[in-house]
Amino acid sequence: MPNRVVTILVFLMLGLSIYMCGENKSSNTPLKISVIPKGTSHAFWQSIHAGAAKAGKELGVEVLWVGPEREDDRQQQIMLVDNQVINQVDAIVLAPSDAIALRRPVKNAVRQGVPVVIIDSGLEDSEDVYTSFVATDNLKGGEIAADELAKMLDGKGRVIMVRLLEGHASTGKREKGFLAALKKYPGIEVASDEQYGGATKATAQTASENLLLRFKDADGNFTVDGIFCVNESTTYGMLQALRRYRLAGKVKFIGFDAAESLLEAMKKDEIHGLVVQNPFTMGFLGVKTAVEHLQGRDVEKRIDTGVLFVTKNEIDKPEMHELLFPDIEKWLQ
Prior knowledge:
Helix content is 46%, strand content 17%. Mean pLDDT is 92; it is low at 1-26. α6 links the parallel β6 and β7 (188-196). It is of the alpha/beta class. The chain has 2 domains: 30-136 and 279-305, Response regulator (Rossmann fold, 3-Layer(aba) Sandwich), CATH 3.40.50.2300; 138-276, Rossmann fold, CATH 3.40.50. Strands 2-1-3-4-5-11 form a 6-stranded parallel beta sheet, with helices on both faces. The protein is built from 12 helices and 12 strands.
């Protein structure tokens, strides 16, 4: 009799456990999707945040926006990924600040049953781990910058390039694409391509000022004809450096990303072109892809969010307005 009682109790407990699990799965609790950017201070990330928020509202899921302030704070980003796994979110949308350092926390998240969608910047040797990669074709973006700058210089002159940070896969591809494409133009000399701007606009401005000083001759003349900067902060830092030395508009200057301050500078002919991504769409599709995966739907392994070149003439075109001036406040209220 005691054994029979024990058996009945075991079956009752098992049945209750199955019932409770079924109740949790069928509840109306919304999915929780954590979006973890490289940083939070630049306009680029605010636009990604707005796109993610729009997806959350349209799809009925809770979007948690958590990220380090500075794009070079790898350790904080690693900690944030680990914490979101501990908090049992349903999925993570991550823009890795380092292509190698973030592999371990991403693999751990997936092992713990939390799928990860990568946005903006890739992870090395991890395609079998993450769910999807939603990003710009950054190699193409760098190639576009090279071709447009070469066109502005009529295929001859000296140019410099300012990098962002070591370990950033997205900007690293832009740099690689730019330098590779310039090899098609034998009349163009790359005078400098080793300077890093650092994680903030302030560090980028200091680095740019020091770089510009290297290319002044004995008479104070600037000996470079063209400049390319690989992201929003390096473009802004270089812009301020050029203004300080009264060189703004005198040197052909191409930047990356469409912050309002950069668009205003382009209207003044201080910047001659911007390679533009679509961060709002990137944030939206990152969350949407994560939700579709959780719903058991097939998702594409690689989703290209597009890249194009914009000059002063395109800024005010109606078809460009949503791309260049997304309604961020509407979605971040």
